[in-house]
Amino acid sequence: xxxxxxxxxxxxxxxxxxxxxVAQGVARALGFHFLNSGALYRAVALAALTAALDLENxxxxxxxxxxxxxxFDGNSVVLEGHDVTDAVRGEDxxxxxxxxxxxxxxxxxxxxxxxxxxxxxxxxxxxRDMGTVVFPDAVLxxxxxxxxxxxxERRHKQLMEKGLGANMAALLQDIRERDQRDSAxxxxxxxxxxxxxxxxxxxxxxxDAIAQVLALYKQAPRAP
Length: 224
Ligand code: CDP
Prior knowledge:
By secondary structure, the chain is an alpha/beta fold. The chain is about 50% helix and about 15% strand.
């Protein structure tokens, strides 16, 4: 008898669309595991920046991705024994993560690490290619988005809450540039797959979006 793999809810979408908050809320409500796949790309980027590596050297960077000594728990990231949860959220790391995420060998190197998060009773995975590449058999695929202005405002609020300075115009520009890079890359570009449900969070709260995803999950067809 074939072993059935634990169910996956894939939540993809652009930067600051609320994916992380929604994915974690859904995971909490269902008692599922949570994968913040962006944190993996960020950890590789931080390791590369710390070692002053060339961000275009695909073979060195994929080697780092394979051997990375990192632990992920919710949003917390521990790299080589150091808590780098805040460091990986820095804007320099965001830009570097988006650049290295365009390298096919880096993406391949992170595949099995991401799939290892699929444990009973289930997984909510947040990223750009969860439904398209990493978990194409996800029982529910969501594409979460919001207007660039709303996303820049959310990022601004997050940074202010952490006591970090932020400039709205610069954040908006960064969001637009990252959208462009994430959508235009040849490997695993950010896109809504045909079987994903679109949720636009521009005018709704995170709790509303969580409730919508939970309702969709309840109705999602399951294997017999
Ligand atoms: O928090 P934010 O949505 O801004 O970004 P993130 O999810 O932490 O991801 C950081 C970067 O990693 C993104 O800009 C993407 O380029 C890349 N990424 C990716 O390519 N594929 C994923 N599954 C997750 C992130």
